[in-house]
Amino acid sequence: MEYDERLAHFRQTRLNPFDRGEEEEPEGGRATQQHEGSSDLFSGTKTHSSDRTMDLGLAEDHFSRPVGSFVASDIEQLKLAIEECKKLILELPEHSERQKDTVVKLIHLRLKLQELKDPEEDEPNLRVILEHRFSKEKSKSVKQTCDKCSTIIWGLIQTWYTCTGCYYRCHSKCMNQITKPCVRSKVSHQSEYELSICPEIGLDRQDYRCAECRTPISLRGVPSEARQCDYTGQYYCSTCHWNDTAIIPARVIHNWEFEPRKVCRSSMRYLTLMMPRPVLKLKEINPLLFNFVEELVEIRKLRHDILLMKPYFITCKEAMEARLLLQLQDRQHFVENDDMYSLQDLIDISTGRLSCSLTEIHTTFAKHIKLDCERCQAKGFVCELCKEGDILFPFDSHTSVCHECSAVFHRDCYYDNSTTCPRCARMTDRQQDEVEEEK
User: How far is the C-alpha of 47 from the C-alpha of 28, rounded, in Å?
Assistant: First the structure.
């Protein structure tokens, strides 16, 4: 077991050294212990049975730099003390107070070593590896886990980086071992989902190795446990698959199922980055879905109406100044088409969130065109079939629009009238007259 793992184990199961409060001193005061040399530093032979002592206390200042000595000698002494401290932690009884104090002092020694070495000056602020753009983190207190070695990142004593593209986190020492390219580059060049539900190929096709790092794996957990990713269908080791869960696009599109499933780390990052991207054309992938999900039909109608409102806004000075279309800036594709959806759109539809917000925006847009703006009102239509009723707009629920000339009529009038569209008829007659005049 590596040192970082031991320290994490002690920290989680025995004591959190940074959360410990001051302990109440026993009656008669606390006994102190003097050390005469480095050979007695970890001996523990002078411990009083009734009082707790800290063999590695910095109060004695064993490792302060004496006058005339070099920093290198201090560093060597600290490294030696740290190694001895590691051994002592393993030798001391489990859950004992001395073991807990030793873990605390080990952290203090590492901190002091870090101060003397000052590695921050040697580590660059930005590093580029396999299209990852790693930025050095300045936070020291946030507890994170390294995506490469799966151990805890101790921000106080370890330098660590985060990829600004896919948020891959790792120790500085682990960066040269990274083999997986940045997921954001894949999103940029290949914006599409796996639309087959868990396309498993079997461990034998993977040569009984992790699909990412090629570590030997098996379903029996020997030598390493094989964990399946529900998105790719492949198997991964415990280092590449942390049992994270995510909503699977294929299950949503084919079954309208939103239960999160276990996925590997790379799939989780890919799905997270892809979630707001409108890459799903439902009417081609699964057009029958609209027959079974009423909310989808409602959203499709609202989006179609918004596209019909868009020409009013882009020619209206007041609407441009009010920036009405910016109310949909988080879903820009809603003002570009009515058939592309993102995974986030489908999730919001299932929860009812999108229906509420889009209905509110639809009401605001319609109010501007029909009530607030005289210019937009002037662009309305009068039904030429019955020549009665209010001004009509193409997004009204009781109207029908001619596919040829975009004229608007009452729905009942348009379907009950057996003649052709009056506006189309006039345009046809006008064209014929122009042709005869040319002759």
Answer: 17
CB atoms under 10 Å from CB of 300, counted, come to 16
**Which pTM was predicted?**
0.62
Q: Per-residue DSSP letters for 146-186?
A: -TTT-SEE-TTT--EEEETTT--EEEGGGGGG--SPPHHHH
Percent of the chain, pLDDT > 90? Answer: 30
Task: Using CA atoms of 310, 316, 321, 322 in order, give the dihedral in degrees to the nearest 10.
Answer: -50
- Structure confidence at residue 244 (pLDDT): 92
Closest CA to 402 of 377, 428, 378: 428
On whether the CB atoms of residues 195 and 202 are closer than 8 A, the answer is: no
- Residue 417 binned pLDDT confidence (cut-offs 50, 70, 90): low
The rounded distance, in Å, linking the Cα atoms of 165 and 168 is: 8
Count Cβ atoms within 10 A of the Cβ of residue 386 and give its class: 0-12 exposed, 13-18 middle, 19 or more buried.
middle
Assign residue 280 a region: left if phi > 0, alpha if psi is -120 to 50, beta otherwise? beta
Count the Cβ atoms, other than its own, within 10 Å of residue 86. Answer: 15
31 CB neighbour count, 10 Å cutoff: 13
Say if CB 237 and CB 225 are below 8 A apart: yes
Q: In what order do the strands lie in the sheet with 132-136?
A: 126-129, 132-136, 160-163, 169-171
